[in-house]
User: Fold this.
Amino acid sequence: MKKKIAILNGDGIGPEVTRQSIQVLNAVAERFGHTFDYREALIGADAIDKTGTALPSETIDICLDCDAVLFGAVGHPKYDNDPTAKVRPEQGILGIRKALQLFANIRPVTTYPTLQHLCPIKPKNMEGVDFVIFRELTGGIYFGKKQTAEDGSSASDECSYTKEEIERISHLAFQYAQKRRKKLTLVDKANVLDTSRLWRKTVQQVANEYTDVKVDYMFVDNAAMQIILNPKQFDVVLTENMFGDIISDEASVLSGSLGMLPSASLGNKTALFEPIHGSYPQAAGKDIANPTGSVLSAAMMLDHFGMKQEAAVVRDAVEWTLENNFVTKDIDPVNFYFTSTIGELLCDYVIGKIPGSIKKENIELRKSTII
Ligand code: IPM
Ligand code: MN
Assistant:
């Protein structure tokens, strides 16, 4: 198969984690006889520095012309600490989500036995935790009308949803639940918000078409508690934009590191794949970031292309590195391997070089030990 992939590196650790994914994709191409062509485009603070805008129109055109987008991260502290900045890196990711109409953001929360010691939850509550968050991505408070009074004394962000916006992601979430454990939890704040009441009503209607799926409803404050108290109860979690943003970071704690979690954003045009973590500027250029979130996002891209076996090999490669303690600094701050080393090991696994011919001594040379 031949596929064109847009590469949006963005800021901070974005370029270095994405580089590992490209190498893993190249290894997949080599092993399975595919051709992946990459087209780089600017986004985020990097794009602001070079063009004055966080999302140049050329970037949108390139994405629309490709079969999928692999996205790194955006964000830079110089904007975080300047609330008056008119141009912000985040406008890049929000803009591309809107331009590609990526209304469904799928964030699987997978747990790995080898990382369990990093998770603050009691092991008995963690066994078999495996759920997926369906976060609505192009509506709600993120995209509502924003206003700041001229004298700066007040500001508002509007949260609005249409029935149709809720329906389209609900159908995807229900269909996904049908392929899993057939349970869907709608997370909302229907005791307070009109938009949440519309979510509840709409999801109740959509549920009639999926009678084999058991539905329950949970207020977001309770959900925040249940995710760490009893995460096993969740299968598919459906929620609006901002609640999804918040609970997915919370859920990443269950995997052991924010660096582990991938995501897929689907809509009516080109799909986009990105790790859920941010640009982590403190680690930028140090070769210490965890590339797993990005690599697993690339695996979700392979699934999207219908390359199921290829995606499975990439996931096996990730599990193999974890089982052999080939991990980055976020996982083991003392005995850790560099981002690029993990990338090379993943590629070796994908093309079938290891575990058969693994030369542990060579790998050990690339390990960093802090005493
Ligand atoms: C995410 C990020 C983004 C969001 C930021 C960078 C705008 O936190 O993808 O979760 O809030 O959606
Ligand atoms: Mn987020």
